[in-house]
Amino acid sequence: MNSSAHTPGHARKVPWGAFWRLVLIQAQNSFNEKGAQFLLIPLGVWLYGAEGDLEYPLGAIIVLPFILFSPFVGWLSDRFCKARIIQFMALLQICVLAGMYWSLRVHNLNGAILWFCVFAVQATVFSPAKKGIVKDIVGTSRMGFASGIVEMASILSLLIGQIGVFIWFRYLLEPSTDTIWHRWLGEGFFQWFDACLKPSGINDGWYAASFPCLVFLLLAVPVAASSFCLPRYAPGGDRPFSWSLFYEHFHQLGKLWKNRNLRVSEMGIGYFWFFGGTVMLMTIQMAKEISGGGDDRGNGAGGHPRLRDLPPPHPDECFRGGRRADGGELRGPGRSLHGFPGL
Prior knowledge:
Elements: H1 16-48, H2 55-79, H3 82-105, H4 109-138, H5 143-173, H6 180-185, H7 187-197, H8 205-226, H9 248-258, H10 260-290, H11 315-318
Helix pairs in contact: 1-4, 1-5, 1-8, 2-4, 3-4, 3-8, 4-5, 5-8
């Protein structure tokens, strides 16, 4: 284990291979986290229509661990080897995705949401460790460049996970091959995908959510293996554990508010994330209303003449994977996702 964790970057050779490996690990973690979240949101719309407002509790689940456990996970990152924490979190991610995949396969939405809660805690523990090890790898003189690369990769991964998963879910959910993507890219492009990935033309939201989750799981395995190649540095913190780690940051908000520079800086950062999250939620809500997931159940499916007059599905039918008890296919309001962004 390298004990010179705080050596300036110009005084030693920077292991850039380890740095780019770290960028890959954290980008993949961000992509899987956002991808898992945006698999559950359209699945909720497919199951419950107007009542499928999973974007709000899932958004709270993502934020709440950061609010409650930030000082404690920061203490973990200072007190223990950051590389070991990253490795453990990479292995935990595999367990979480496996649990989510199995829950979706057996049509257990509550189980999938529970595993997503564990994913949110995993991301909370992972964040300070991956930020802290950046300085250990590149040194202080290159912190600006390295931090910018890490954050840029994280944001791009979040965006790709958010938009790409919506498109992927929509493609797998569509029972026919007459989609906008077939018209744009041609029938030949999707011939192999349709033959291998389409569930025999069945409009099955459970499959549309579980199959991408399986792909996320398979991709997480080699990335987790690569985390064991990260260099290990001696931890620099020596503060003993205390229960105040779980609430002292609420008292520290007073100190932050009294310092004008810190206050203005945090207000700007908070406004950026608040505005981005608000736009995302508004876009999802408008998409649900267009696609028939709005409050007007009588005019569901966006006024589609063939679906408008059908009654809403019984809740018990939702847990049969979109199939009625008599084996027929559900086509009630809230089953279409045509209105989601980019779809």
